[in-house]
Amino acid sequence: MTKSAEKPGVPADGLYSRKPVFAVAPMIDWTDRHCRYLHRQISRHALLYTEMVVADAIIHGPRDRLLGHDASEHPVALQLGGSDPAKLAEAVRIAGAYDYDEINLNVGCPSDRVQSGTFGACLMLTPETVADCIAAMKKVSMIPVTVKCRIGVDEQAPEQALPDLITRVLDAGADAIWIHARKAWLKGLSPKENREIPPLDYDIVYRMKERWPNEFIGINGGIQTLDQAQAHLAHVDGVMLGRAAYQNAAVLADVDHRFYGEPAIEPDWSGLCDRMMAYAERHIAHGGRLQHVARHMVGLFAGLPGSRRYRQILSTDANKPGAGPEVIAAAFAAVDFVGEGERVSA
To answer: Are the C-beta atoms of residues 321 and 335 closer than 8 Å to each other?
Structure first.
């Protein structure tokens, strides 16, 4: 396995040795390899996550399609779904050949499909199972093994349920805890509603960090801006943005400066256009479609002059038979970029 010192964006002494950590949350149907490639072109250091991949799928399914990623994506974490320690350990062993920087266990997704497999957020109800899973994964992993959880589910009292889970998984060897600062309601709310209706409780996440000052505690849920992310870092070690980063990926352009001490520079949107065109051309040459790449780029310039036309071009033209990288060039050419007032020349 490649040493972390040889990977871009990964500290030589470990992924969580440097604080703070800024991450883009794992999101089903969104954070696939094409999305992550786009995000990496905008931020060199943000920690990127895969969609949740079920352990059974890795064991029995098309591994290269499920686990393959571009070498430029580092640092990149694989999120696993499952509740069987042996199967999760086998999935971690298989994933070892794909050179991820972290393995994360999903203990937060509330969807019916995940519940039917008795994993995701419903694992909050059986913290001993989560601990067994983490212990089994740690035995076969050469990289950090982490947990992403909610503060509780259904009628659980978060003040009891959350520290119980944290205690157990840390004892089992977990390297970091990412906490979505909402409960999940397993019955009666859709996954979308579970991201919006249960009230946010950032203070309980702060209290967990106070209780475990020497452990990595990161926060997720409802964070919309880098200013909000910066404010959270007065209390925790890491911040994770989800929909806000996906729906307007341009927000990632200031991450390296704000959180990793890189010099402040103007984003090179022309260069991004060229890189995404080249990436799309490679994808199409291997049998893919432009839309696989372009769909993640639609929200990139939300709020900028010309962004409406940009969205129209990517949403419509990228879906046409035979669409090629020139569609990306046409979309970028529609945008007036703040501070320059010049159109990107394709």
So the answer is: no
Rounded to whole angstroms, the Cα distance separating 306 from 344 reads 11
Q: Is 222 annotated as a binding residue?
A: yes
- Tell me the residue range of the domain where 247 lies: 4-260
- Which of 109, 122, 133, 149 is the catalytic position? 109
pLDDT tens string 285-330: 999 999 999 999 999 998 899 999 999 999 999 999 999 999 999 9
Same domain? 238 vs 316: no
The verdict on 191 and 239 lying in the same domain is yes
Q: Are 277 and 165 members of one domain?
A: no
Last residue of a domain, one of 214, 234, 260: 260
96 is in an annotated binding site: no
Q: What is the pTM of this model?
A: 0.93
Residue 136, both tokens: 């089994």
Task: Tell me, yes or no, if 109 is annotated catalytic.
Answer: yes
Tens digit of pLDDT for each residue in 152-189? 999 999 999 999 999 999 999 999 999 999 999 888 77
Instruction: Work out how many domains the chain is built from and give that number.
Output: 2
Rg of the Cα atoms in the chain: 20
